[in-house]
Amino acid sequence: MSVLDEVLKEEYSRLVRMKDRMQAEYLELPKGYISRKKINGYECYYLQYRDGKKIVSHYIKPDEFDDLQAAISRRKSLKESLKNIDVEMKKIERAMK
Prior knowledge:
Blueprint: H1 3-28, E1 33-39, E2 42-51, E3 54-60, H2 65-96
Antiparallel strand pairs: 1-2, 2-3
Helix pairs in contact: 1-2
């Protein structure tokens, strides 16, 4: 086995471990998006997400808004990172054949 094969296998296993950790965190974070509605002159924020064919809305209390917005942003960045990891893993799989 060549040194290149060993490096590729090591990198592949690192990506698998990283993907597992990211997926676990991704599943713990809230899904959906924040929508803003103006009701009786006041701005209200709602967490909205799809549950089957229905769109579910949950009111966001003002003191929870910042934390929820950060969590949703983190989920989006994790989703993008997971896509990139899948691409890298496919490249390594092709190189190892």
